[in-house]
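haha ok so turns out i had the wrong file open the whole time. this is the CORRECT one, sorry everyone. sequence first:
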Amino acid sequence: MVFTHAALDGIGGNGAKAYQCTACGGLITSSDRLIPIGVSTRHRFANPAGVTFEFHTFFSCPGAVAHQEATEAHTWFPGYRWRLAFCRHCGRHLGWYYEAVFPPVRPVEFWGILISHLLSR
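then structure:
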């Protein structure tokens, strides 16, 4: 799937970069939706098996969907539970969707999308 410049304009404004799925080219989100969690929008963590992941955090990812039951097991962000995030267009794993365990925590939700699974334009 190829997006024209006009199609990319709809997701971000003011010169924002559009981020697309590396597998299918589907539009995932834009740079004007980045949100710092802690002190950064870019994170690097290792899972219990020692595999390292680098990802950006976004407050919105219209091109992603979250699946499975949320869990707090091995969360990288205390106070948040997570679910797997997939490309809405092709189903490729993109990262994780996080939601606050207790609603007073801010932000209430955010997405952690793998840098290696995004093309920026």
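The two ends are 15 Å apart (CA to CA).
again sry for the mixup
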